[in-house]
Every structure is written in C-alpha cells, then in structure tokens.
UniProtKB/TrEMBL annotation, chain A:
Organism whose genome encodes this protein: Falsiroseomonas selenitidurans
Family: Belongs to the binding-protein-dependent transport system permease family. CysTW subfamily.
InterPro entries documented for this protein: MetI-like, MetI-like_sf
Keywords: Cell membrane, Membrane, Transmembrane, Transmembrane helix, Transport
TM regions (residue ranges): 172-195, 207-232, 252-275, 310-336, 356-382
Entry-linked PANTHER family: ABC TRANSPORTER PERMEASE PROTEIN, INNER MEMBRANE ABC TRANSPORTER PERMEASE PROTEIN YDCU-RELATED-RELATED
Membrane topology, as annotated: Multi-pass membrane protein
Name the UniProt record assigns to this protein: ABC transporter permease
Location in or out of the cell: Cell membrane
Domain of life: Bacteria
TrEMBL record, chain B:
Organism this protein belongs to: Falsiroseomonas selenitidurans
Keyword ATP-binding in annotation: yes
InterPro entries in the record: AAA+_ATPase, ABC_SmlMolc_Importer, ABC_transporter-like_ATP-bd, ABC_transporter-like_CS, Mo/tungstate-bd_C_term_dom, P-loop_NTPase, Transp-assoc_OB_typ2
Keyword line: ATP-binding, Nucleotide-binding, Transport
Superkingdom of the source species: Bacteria
Protein name (record): ABC transporter ATP-binding protein
MF terms (GO), sorted A to Z: ATP binding
A Pfam family of this chain: TOBE_2
Domain ABC transporter: 6-237
Amino acid sequence: MRRTNLLAAALIAPLLLLILGSFLVPVGLTLFRAVADREVVATLPETSAILAGWDGEGLPPEAAFAALAREAGAALQARRIGDLAQRLNFERTGLRTALLRVARAADRLAAPHAQSLPALDARWGERETWLLLQRAGGPTTALYLLRAMDATRTPQGEVRALPVEERLYRTLFLRTLGISLLVTALCVLLAYPVAAAIAGLRPPWSAVALTLVLIPFWSSVLVRSTAWFVLLQREGPVNGALQALGMLEAPVQMLGTRFAVVLALVHVLLPFAILPMHSVMKGLDGTFLRAAASLGANGPQRFLRVWLPLSLPGVLAGGAMVFLLSVGMYTAPALVGGDRDQMVAWFIANFMNRDVNWGMAAALSAYLLAMTGAMVGLVRVLTGGVAQAGLRG
Amino acid sequence: MTATLVRFDGVSKSYDGRTRVVAELDLEIRRGEFLTLLGPSGSGKTTTLMMLAGFEDPTAGSITLEGARIDTVPPHRRNIGVVFQNYALFPHLSVAENLAFPLSIRRVPRAEIGRRVAAALSMVRLPGLGGRRPQQLSGGQQQRVALARALIFNPPLVLLDEPLGALDKQLREELQAEIRRIHAELGVTMVYVTHDQSEALTLSDRIAVFDQGRIQQLGTAQAVYETPANPFVAGFIGENNRLPATVLDATRLRLAEGSMLATLPHGLQAGAAALVSIRPERVLLEAAEAAPNAAAARVEEVVYLGDHCRLRMAWAGRTDFFAKLPRQQAGQVPQAGTTLRIAIPEAAIIVFPA
Ligand SMILES: Nc1ncnc2c1ncn2[C@@H]1O[C@H](COP(=O)(O)OP(=O)(O)OP(=O)(O)O)[C@@H](O)[C@H]1O
Ligand SMILES: [Mg+2]
C-alpha cells in the first residue's frame, strides 16, 4: 500500500514540477512584479541608504544630494539609468528630466550639492521629491496596484483617487467586464439551442454537426479576427450585402466599434460554449423527458423543470469558459475595435512592449486574475448543488 | 364502469415501414388486473407498452382507454403512470421532490402534496428518505421511489417496463412481493413487461405471451403453463421435452422411434404429424407396472439441485429426455447408469399439430 503510494507520487512528480514551473512560477513572478520596487535601490544604493535614515523633515542632509549626483552620473555612464528614470517619471511626471539633468551634469556640479542640484532643477529643492525617493527605496510598493485602480499616494503617504480626467483603469476594467459578460450571455444564448439540437441528432449526423462546430478551431484566432476585419470594412461584404438588400442607404462604419468587437468575440468563442453544453446534454438520458411527460408535464414544463436544470452544469461550464477567455482577449478587439473598445489585455501588452513598465503590466494582470478568480468562485458556488446532479449515478 | 379498461384494436407498429414490430394486436386489459407482457427480446413488448404510454404512435389500429381513443392524445395528457427500467428519477430533485413532481404539475395544494408524499413514502416502506437525492439510494430503493412516483397521482393504469431487470435475484423477489401487495391494496390496473417467466408467473393475473410482434397466448399463469396454445408458448414458459410423433387414432400416437403413447383425446386426424410436449416434473419415476405409458428408462446423468434432482434419461430412442425428481423425502439419489421405470400420465402429454 505504502509502496504503491510512493510509486504513484514518483510518477506524478514530473507532471507536478511541470505545472509548478509553467503555471505557478510565472503567475507568482507576475504578482511579485506588481508590488516589487527595486529600481531606486539597485541604481542609487547609497542615496537610498542615506535617505533611509532621514526623518523626512525639511530636506535631507548634504550627503544625500552628493550621493545622488554621483550615482546618477555613474548610472548614465553605464547606461543603466533608463529603468530608474521610467520608475520615477511614472510616479511623478517630470522626474525623468530632473534625474537626467543631474546625471548629465554630475561631473560639473559644485559642492554644496544641496544648492547646486536645486539650481539645476528646482524639483531637487522640493521636499516631496525626496520623500518620493525615500519611499521608493523598496522593497515593495503599492504604487502600481493603486494606479491600476486610478488611485495614488500623496507624498505624505495618503491614498487618494486620481483627478477625474486622469482616471482610466476603473473604466477599463468595467468595460472589460461589460464586454465579457455581454459576449458570455450572447454565446450562452446562441450555443444552448445548437448544443441541444446536436445532442438530439442520431449518430452519423451528430458527429458531422460536432465537426462543423470544431472547424473554426482549425484556424487561429488571428485568422478569424482578420476575417472580420475584411468583412466589416466600409467596402466589405457585410456593408455590400446590407446595401444590396436595401437595408442600408450608405455604408456604415462598423470597424472600430463596440459592435464589431462583440461580434468577433462571440464568433471566436462560441465553440467554447457549445462543447461543454453538448457534452453534458449528450449524457442526459432521454427517458428523463419521457418520465416527465408520463407524470403530466407538457413541453414547456418538461424543458423548464427537467431539461434546463439538468443541462445547467453545461451552461455554467460553457459560460465560465467563454468569460475567462473573453476577459483575456487581445487579438480580436485590437483588430476590429476602436480606441475606446480595447480591453485590459491590450493595455497589459502595451505596458510590456511599448512602455516597458512591468510593474503596471503586472498590476493589471493581478486584477485580471482576481476578476477571473472571483468569477470561477461564483460559478463554483452556483454549481454547488447542481454539479453532481447533472452526473447520473 | 365496464370491465374493460384498455382496448387495442388491430394495432400494428413498424419503425422502418417494412417489418412490423407489433402486428395486428387485439388486446383487452381488464380493470384492476395485473397483466404481464412476456416474451423473448425483440418481441415487441416495450413497443406495445410505449404505444400505450404515448411515446410511440401506432402505424395502424386504435387504442382506447375507458372507451375513449387515446392514440392521438399526447403522453402528458394520458394520465398513465410509467415505471422505467432505469428508474428515470430526476437527479436534480430530492426523493420528495421527485414524488411531488406530478402533483405540483397538477396544481395540488402544497399541504396536500406534503401529506401524499409522506403517504407514498411509507407505502413503499421508505419513510424518512424524502430528503435524499436519488443517487444516494440503492437500486432497490430507487425502484421503490420510481414506483411510488408512478402511483402518487392516482392514475387508473400503471405501466412497468422490466422494472426489476437491473436488480439481483433476492432484491427482485422482495420487490415482486411489494408490487403484488401494492397492486392488491390500491386496486390499480398494472401492465408489466418482462422476459423473466418466473416473474410473470409470480405476479400476474393474466399473461400475454408475445413472439414476433404477436400475442401467442393470453391467459392465467396456470393456463399458459399447463395448456400452452402452441409449441412456442410451451417452450418459452417452463421446460419441456419435445418429441415428434404420428397420430395413430384419437387417443394414441406413435413416437418417431416406434413406441406408442396413450394421450387424452387430441382432436388430430389419424396419420397426421404431431409434436408432443411433456414437462419434466410430470414424468413419474419408480412407477407401478400398470401406470400409463410405463417404460424402462436408463439414467444418463443426475444433477442435484437441492429441492429436486434433474435426470437426463434415455427414453424413446433419445438420450435427452429430462425428468425432475422432487426431494420430498431424504434418501438415495438415483445413480447414473441405473434403470428406472417411468410413466407419463395421459394428462401430462400435450399434443400440437406439427
Ligand atoms: N426506436 C426504434 N427504431 C427502430 N427499431 C426499433 C425501435 N425500438 C425498437 N425497435 C425494434 O423493434 C423490435 C421490438 O422492440 P421492443 O423494444 O418492443 O422489444 P422488447 O420485446 O421490449 O424486447 P426486450 O425484451 O429486449 O426489451 C426490435 O426488433 C427492435 O430492434
Ligand atoms: Mg423492452
């Protein structure tokens, strides 16, 4: 008994390591990146150490000014100053310039630095700048997580909402949630009758129908989204057909609209709703419906009181699948949507590729993860009573 | 109120338009009776039952319930209880909710539903299990619930399609007794499908023996067993020895091997070919010299079965003639190789035209 257990564990171990390596580690690293704050310590170790001893009153001692000038100059020489400039500028616009000015002039600056630095850039004479630098000494920061919720911290350390015109991410998350819920609802509504119809087909035809559902999987999401890009153009077939049918006078702008995004997402994700529903419905015994009829239930009653509850686990599984995939969708909205239709994934990609701001990318990812996690939890609670009921036994 | 509850008139059913699975079925089901449809696999029993329940449409003929045609009425308006072989209890509902289902469909007041569910549970001897899910019950318990659910809305007719087929022998016998008790208590008409002959004999007021879509015989258990209408019925219900013979005169046959067999008047023409059927338990062993159709027979093989012994004997030119020896008294079991004197009473010989 013990031996077989050990053997089983040994056999599973490689798989476990693979899962750990390919899933838990990247997710853990991402979550860590969302709160890590290392740029200042890494590039300005001495300045950080001095600031750590500063009581925050007035301005820091001369030694801090001198260390900053020296270390900034050295970092510029070594071409290591980019990350730091980006980090500081992200928290307060303008600090990139202030830092680079000092770095470039490092050799020429005369003592006392407490006077030559503010002379070069007035921001070095402000207590807020130094407080910010002190707090950025790490090792962790809530900066990115706060910013991803449109909040910030004052130099005094209070959490504040950003001014309305600078807010962005709450709307973005709500938009992502909204689009995903709409897409999920549409997919579930469209998939349910399709799955039920396929489950009702006799053997050769059910396989044919299922293959038709699966055909989209033979091409990538990119290809399918590009197809919509072509179809929805002003001179594209959709506009052409609607005009030919007399339903439109002039071509309509469809690309770059929310409509196009939802359409493309529903199309791309529909099979993910059909398959789990179908697999649940296929397992449902037709005698349940016969039994209900023999007990006096008419068609609608049979559907509402027997078929629907029994197929609900499939609906929830399919819906959850579509929602989870939709929340993280990047390609389709990027191709057919406008600026105001982009979802969280697009911003994450931008922070990684364009801004090289890993902290922000990680913070957005963390919230996305929380959102999907909450959804999975909700579905689990909802299916608590239904899940086992769907499986006969 | 007439004695007839259901009537099949020339009912035929074909799934593919060519072969008739049920052919020109005429059948009257009496009010309050327990009728069993018995027959081999594929003989059309389930199809007949499903046409009555409304899940299959007859290709021809008519079915009436209480004198009114029902073959055009959808199943949910027929008010017929059905017990399915795989129970078909709704897995998303508790036992009590399953039982309440037909009542709530019929808009029975809540308080009355509670009362009737409790009564139904105690009728099938499962009080207190109303809160469980069907999957938490044993097979026998699930079948009891299915039976209760088919009865709870007081249908005049309940159909059962091999309801005990999935249960082991002991449980099956226990539930047979239960079904009989409930049938007697409620006086409801039951139509029961099985291909287990002993089950049919145990339960039924009347048995309809099916083969190839036709009723071969309809009668009481005793009638179909003791006076089978044709060789199929004789062979399907119980064991029998079959021997080809030729008619000598009104009460005598000659077996193929040459020996004579005295029978009751059989009504066949002299010289006609006949088929003789003899039940093993009707063969007399250790018979007196003057007994009818007495002859010596060698014991070829003995199978000891506890309550009786099964003997394979050489008789009338064959070595596969079977006889049953009941173990009424303890004592010697005949040995293979010994010769016994057997006899066959005239009344035990059933003669069919061949
Ligand atoms: N839905 C159907 N489509 C086509 N043929 C069918 C269908 N249902 C039954 N049959 C055929 O009809 C014949 C009778 O079937 P039925 O189910 O009535 O037999 P049965 O007497 O109940 O047999 P069993 O004891 O095996 O249940 C069989 O040959 C079967 O193959
Ligand atoms: Mg059957």
